[in-house]
Amino acid sequence: MGNAYKLELWSNIYLMLGGSAAGLIGLLFIVTSLHLAKITNNQLLRRRANQRTIYLFLLLIEAVIVLMPQPIQALGVELIAINLFGLGFPLSNVCRYCSKSKNPDESDDWAIMRAIRYIIAFLVGTAGGVALIRQSLWGMYLVTATYVALFILVALNAWANMFIRD
Known about the structure:
Elements (H helix, E strand, L loop, with lengths): L10 H24 L1 H5 L2 H25 L4 H28 L9 H25 L5 H23 L5
């Protein structure tokens, strides 16, 4: 457990995660271009595609800052900032959902569940940043768990875009 502090031991996994995020950004652009007309004409699909791209860029930036030589406390502050920035998107989705008029035919409870998953992931990432500032051994484990969870969420949601009906 004492090795959790040594960021150089985390470099291989973050090289893989950062490369995976970069690759998925490219694939997301391809998927979006396949359904470009449908996405540009639908505000909800456009917002989802935009947010997925932002989440992937946040993951790429996170991999870069983890790999960048710096004090562990500075890394913690940067991770808190990234996760709080990312947290704003699902929170705004929940606010938007709660403020629109409720029509029983337009129930989208799945959207709330999706937002809750992102909110939990970003909160765990923020906790990981706080743990790093406090020099807790669990900090990098929380950060990495968040990274993997967000990556999976974005990948699954991007996959759903492949099946947009025309």
